[in-house]
Target: Amino acid transporter
Amino acid sequence: MAAPDTPDTENVRDTAVGDHSETGGPRSLRRRVTTPLLLFFVLGDVLGAGIYALVGTLEAEVGGAVWLPLVIALLLALLTAGSYAELVTKYPRSGASAVFVQRAFGRPVLSFLVGFAMLGAGLTSAAALATAFAGEYLQELVATPEVPTAIVFLVLVALVNARGISESLRANIVMTLVELTGLVLVVVAAVVLLGSGGGDVSRVTDLSTAGEGTALWSALGGAVVLAFYSYVGFETSANIAEETVDPRRSYPKALLGGVAIAGLAYLVVGLAVSASLPADRAASGDGPFLEIMAVSPLSVPGGLFSVIALVAIANGALLTMIMASRLAYGMATEGLLPSPLAAVLPRRRTPGAAIAETTLVAVVLLLTGGLEALASTTVLLLLVVFFFVNVCVLVLRREGKSPLAAQEEVDDTHDTDTDAGAGRGARDHFRVPTVLPVLGAASCVVLATQQEAESYLRAALVLLVGLALYGVQALTRRRDRTPGAA
Model:
């Protein structure tokens, strides 16, 4: 059994990251995230708002066999999650994907574009969630102007984010439990319905809606993309590795465990929806969960699910903005974004400048497009990031340890000051079988082929903005190095 002072039993620690003194440097973040907090972070971000809307759409695509695309998408998500587990335990730094690419290829422009794709995906997702929060679920409870409400929502999320990582993650625990309670209610309502003679269990193997032959595979491919979107969110946890106590031990457990638990929840809920509702009804109306409540003998107020959906959306937005702000902070410390974004609030030790900047950009984004447009751009940008993350695993193994990676190993060993982690270097990191990152990279390519041309155009525009910012940053650095420059 671990001693009382180990990371497994102590909920909050004040170890400064990146500084070996007692007080920490002005730009260091505190290691305050333990394994349970990290698990709830992953679980809360993966569950998010998608499951409350996408199950009905999946049933419309493939009929009653909703579990099939959900299982396939789970396996694909675990491939990339394994690559994240290996790289994060090797390089536990804010910045995640950008840091991995820089270690693997040593090309700042590529590192910047991958990091910017991740940042852009996070901010478009947050803008989409803010739009969803101000939409029909809230309007059923109280009539408010949607755009101002979405802006106020993002500001409130920023305030929670700035207060502290442990405070944010404790709020996430409460909201994740609310989300899980809602899913449990759906399953219980379905069981009660089936027990009373309603529903039809045989629908769970029905693929008739998807058609036959080529049409079947096309429908299944589209459904897998939708289901994969339901698992998106696990990657955000990589950006709080710098605030995690003993990430080499906690991160693989929390990441892979969180994705697996979410997958199990999705599978059970998918079976419940399939058995309770025919495909046409699940895909219409106010949403499959509210439809189940309407046909089940279990008496649950319809307004309760509006509240649960709002909690799910709020939780997803909070965790996404935590990721985005830590990513911007990490890129700034790597010199990929302007250095002022690495500023840390003196008392809270949270990346205040990055929180303010990412919130402002998310506000601008929510004014530029609707929910579907922002969501589709998010998926494609993340597939770009996931492809490079899987490739980085292979490259970093093949090329061995560069001087930069060697210094990272030394720094990480000093940063880990617990008994459980003391003296361990980067060589003691999680490792996946080589075939998994190969399959992970290939899966990203396959899923990208299912995207529409319009999504490619939006993603390309985001990356072009990133290139422009990189050019401005490069010119600024060059001017500052020029003798006699003002």
Summary: The first strand starts at residue 15 and ends at 16. The mean pLDDT is 78. The beta strands are 15-16, 30-31. The chain is about 70% helix and 0% strand.
